[in-house]
Design a protein that fits this description.
- The chain is α/β, with parallel strands linked by helices.
- Among the domains are: about 140 residues, Resolvase, N-terminal catalytic domain (Rossmann fold, 3-Layer(aba) Sandwich), CATH 3.40.50; about 130 residues, Hect, E3 ligase catalytic domain fold (Alpha-Beta Complex).
- Helices cover about 45% and strands about 10% of the residues.
- It is built from eleven helices and eleven strands.
- Strand 4 and strand 5 form a beta hairpin.
- The chain is elongated.
Length: about 400
């Protein structure tokens, strides 16, 4: 009987032999070709490019822009921002090869999202329109704190014709050097991680102050209140009259929309300084516990540290309620009656026309900014009104 061969074993060995032979042949070909080159049997010429890849590498005048950013408007950061601006102005103006296009800036803006950074967007637009050859910035963390945004922006700049380079001063990195791509990716990831850790630390600090009743909530759009120089909440008399009018009218049977229409008709501006009042704005004032001197912390929270999207806190995070936290504009009894009406929606059945606000003399105070706490004086006041204003100030009725 004829003995059978192991076909599988034979084919496997043949394949290995062919692969080994091809490898050896390729090695031999490479060695022989290089040997011919060295002996001068083959001639080759290197044709150098007439132009450099990046415009700044060959331009007689390099069009330069600088990008500066700080995330908050705190005093220390204001100094840091101004130092960045002055530094890059000096760097560009003292270099004879540089021509300043613009110092692009975003002051008091987070670097976690490009969408809020108008200066950054303008810089990218100018680069795409061929106005820039080189961008200078302090560091990758100033350029951005979102790895996707950073790398997307750098890729856009490198894909332009000609490409626009970015020089990160602190890291000593220029994007015109392709070897820096991995380093930039790693540093961008670290910048985002740092931003995330900072966000967590800030939130923990805020929640601790909320828990202890020490957190200073914003009164920027809270009509009737302002903060003095020490940060204490004070009643703003002129605006407090508007709040009192809203509660009185509501308890007399007027609906939020009717009150809003009346305030608009009287020419009284809304909390956001709009001419037109909305029923929802009036309803928010009626349901805001701050007007009876209490405060409920963490009604909303930031869901995403990158987008800073704020959402309502619906049993997700703890809330902190503090009674008698600050001076009340509306007494508790009146506020509780308003809440009962809001929950039952039993309003709007009155036939009595809603009245107008009384024209009681009052002095307004500046609520925000460097003049916070100062009084607004009207140059058109009569002598009697000026005397009344002085009397109010002397009697400290403004507090």
């Amino acid at each position: 009987m004829v003995k059978k061969l192991d076909a599988e074993k034979i084919e496997l060995a043949r394949h290995k032999l062919e692969k080994s032979t091809k490898r050896e042949q390729e090695k031999k070909h490479i060695q022989e070709t290089i040997a011919k080159n060295r002996r001068g049997e083959r001639k080759g010429t290197v044709i150098m490019p007439e132009r450099k890849m990046y415009a700044f590498q060959e331009a007689s005048k390099i069009r330069v822009g600088a990008y500066c950013r700080v995330s908050t408007a705190e005093e220390a950061q204001v100094g840091s921002f101004e130092m960045q601006v002055q530094h890059f102005k000096s760097v560009i103006e003292t270099n004879p090869n540089y021509e300043l296009v613009k110092i692009y800036s975003d002051e008091g803006v987070s670097g976690t999202s490009v969408e809020r950074r108008k200066g950054f967007q303008e810089m990218m637009m100018d680069a795409e329109n061929g106005k820039l050859d080189l961008i200078l910035t302090k560091s990758i963390s100033r350029f951005g704190r979102n790895i996707v945004d950073i790398l997307t922006a750098l890729r856009k700049l490198s894909d332009l014709s000609p490409p626009v380079a970015v020089n990160f001063e602190s890291e000593g990195i220029n994007t015109s050097d392709g070897k820096n791509k991995l380093v930039i990716s790693i540093l961008s990831a670290l910048a985002e991680l740092e931003s995330q850790q900072k966000s967590i630390a800030i939130k923990e600090g805020i929640r601790y102050r909320m828990q202890e009743g020490l957190y200073k909530f914003s009164v920027h759009n809270t009509i009737g209140y302002y903060r003095d120089y020490s940060g204490r909440i004070k009643i703003e008399p002129a605006e407090a009259k508007i709040v009192e009018y809203i509660y009185e009218s509501y308890l007399e049977g007027a609906s939020p929309q009717e009150i809003a229409d009346s305030l608009t008709e009287q020419g009284i501006r809304s909390p956001k300084n709009m001419e037109q009042w909305k029923g929802s704005t009036v309803r928010n004032i009626l349901s805001n516990e701050k007007y009876c001197g209490d405060v409920l912390y963490q009604k909303t929270y930031s869901k995403d540290y990158l987008t800073h999207t704020t959402v309502k806190n619906k049993d997700i995070l703890p809330q902190y309620f503090w009674e008698n936290n600050h001076p009340a504009i509306i007494d508790k009894d009146t506020w509780n009656k308003a809440q009962e009406l809001l929950s039952s929606a039993k309003y709007g059945k009155h036939k009595k026309q809603i009245g107008k606000m009384s024209k009681k003399f009052a002095i307004s105070k500046v609520k925000n900014g460097v003049l916070r706490g100062f009084m607004l004086l009207d140059m058109n006041w009569t002598k009697e009104e000026r005397d009344m204003a002085i009397k109010l100030i002397e009697n400290e009725d403004l507090d």
